[in-house]
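Researcher: Here's a chain I'd like modeled. Treat it as a single chain, no partners, no ligands.
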Amino acid sequence: MNDDSKKIVIAMSGGIDSSVAAFLLKNTGNDCIGITLKLVKNSINDTAEGKTCCSYNDTMDARKVAFKIGIPHYVLNFTDAFETLVIKDFIDKYIYGLTPNPCIECNRHIKFDKFLLRAQQIGYPYIATGHYARIIYNERTGRYNLLKAIDISKDQSYVLYTMTQEQLKHTLFPLGNMNKKEVRALAYDNKLHNSEKPDSQDICFINDNDYAGFIEKHISHMPAQGSFIDNDGRVLGTHKGIHRYTIGQRRGLDICSGRRMYVCSKDSTSNTIVLGTENDLLRKTFEINYINLITTDTIENPMHLFVKTRYSRSAEPATVIQKDTDVISICFDEPQKFICPGQSAVIYDGDSVVGGGIIQ
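Model: Modeled as a single isolated chain. Structure tokens:
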């Protein structure tokens, strides 16, 4: 090992990104261990190979890559923590009428908390993943900053905004300065067997993207049907359970109307869903809580920044005001669609993640 070498535990999902991350770190002289996180009990996602991650076949892919590049490989069981902190949270929030993002909660509670702690307990100060993002140390502020990836089309900084200063200090993202084409070429040139493996797309514990079916299988009482109503409270029809719908949904409403109708809001207390037109989806202002700030401890004054409200959407200009320790108010310059309670809003200053929180 060279003088700059680090002791690093690499989270290896079996996909191409974490495999190339492991290859790069091993071949720059670091002391590396590959670990696959077992997250889901009973291998409920084994039938979804190529769409999700964390299946038995994915674990075997990770093991083959580790053997190929010459590092030890182990599996760590986090199923109990994942079930409580991610799956149960996902179900509870959907039943309550929210639309959570379980990937963010997995990063918050498992990958950059419990996994990092486990690595440090065995004497490895650093962890690495195949996420597309960058971490830099800002000498002027004395803080670690989380930046967008060079490959904006693959940037994953949105799902990483919960990271603390201590976590950023001990995390490496080797792919942050690469694009996907370069990653695949490197895997192919170095004969990694999974170089053509498709990217995972769905939530790792749900097959075929069937959220409602998964929730219904894991609760004791089926959610009750309720009413679709308009903005004036008039009943338009019957919904099949509040967990089956999300903000902006148009298909599957079974409503006869002369206009296209969309889910605009949900109220779990009255078990009603408000339908409206596409214009009714537009909002300018909302609040977030469960705040995590990265570039600063507090947003002292109103700031004009950029805010992203879904992983797949672009960041849009907005005024950001911190009203309390755990409340930030956001006002977009122009009204935006699909601002969905339970999702995360992430605040950017250029390429840098200022912080974020959960939409209320």
